[in-house]
Every structure is written in C-alpha cells, then in structure tokens.
Amino acid sequence: MRLRVSGEHTGNSYDLYSVMGEISIDNKLPNYHLLNSFIEALQEKDPNRVSILRKKISHQMGDQALVDISAVIAAFNAFPRMADATGIPLEEEKKKISEKMRAELKIDQLITT
User: Fold this and answer.
1) Once rounded to an integer, what is the mean pLDDT over residues 44-63?
2) Residue 14: which of 35, 29, 1, 25 has the closest Cα?
3) Which residues contact 34 (CB under 8 A, 6 or more apart)?
4) Structure confidence by residue, pLDDT tens digits, 61-99
5) Which of 2, 61, 110, 111 could link 65 by a cystine bridge, Cβ 3.0 to 4.6 Å?
6) Domain ranges of the chain
7) Can you list the alpha helix ranges (DSSP code H) found in the chain?
8) Residue from 78, 1, 66, 4 nearest 35 by CA
C-alpha cells in the first residue's frame, strides 16, 4: 500500500480506516478535512465550491500539491474506465440498468477479446 510506505518514509502514521470507512477524530493525515471537502465538491460537481477549495489548497499546501492532488483524483477517476475498456466483464447490476442504453448504442455487438 503506497500510503503506508509513504508514511514509513516521512515518519508519519496514518489511520487508513478513515479513508475507507468512518472518519476518525484522531486522523493524522495533513489537511485531511480540506482534501476530503475538495473530493466531495468534485463528486458533487459544485464548480463554485471546487474553485474556492482549489484556492485554499494552493494557499495552504502550494501549487505543486494542488497539481499532484488533482492528478491522483483524475487517475482514480480513470481506472474504472480503463478496466471497462479492456473488456473486464460488466457486473450483473450494471447490466440491468444499462440494458436499454447498450441496445441503442449496439455496444453488445462490439467485438471483444
């Protein structure tokens, strides 16, 4: 796990449960609340809040941190698309809800490997 290795390098310890489950009051991840708010604003597609939080991140953590944070978020957003593009089978629940769209686009007729 990359964050664990990073923590060993910096001497910081992280409560990984807080990023995978409920928020821990004792979270030691620097700027946790700012980063979490930024991710939430992006997920909610709130351009005003995203803009405000970008400025806060840049001010508190620096421009390079903002670039790095944005790159990580973009990469995680792309991973499912890459998996889909490589032909990883569609989950049953997604098959049901996408049936009409797939029929209209004739996606199921595409050649797979």
Assistant:
1) 97
2) 29
3) 53, 56, 57, 60, 61
4) 999 999 999 999 998 888 877 777 777 777 788 888 888
5) 61
6) 31-109
7) 2-10, 17-20, 32-43, 47-61, 63-85, 92-105
8) 66
CA distances from 111 to 102, 107, 108 (A): 14, 9, 8
Contact 59, 34 (CB under 8 A): no
**Helix/strand/coil for 111:** coil
In the DSSP assignment, the letter for residue 85 is H
| Terminal C-alpha separation, the chain | 31
What confidence tens digit (pLDDT) does each residue in 33-49 have? 899 899 999 989 999 99
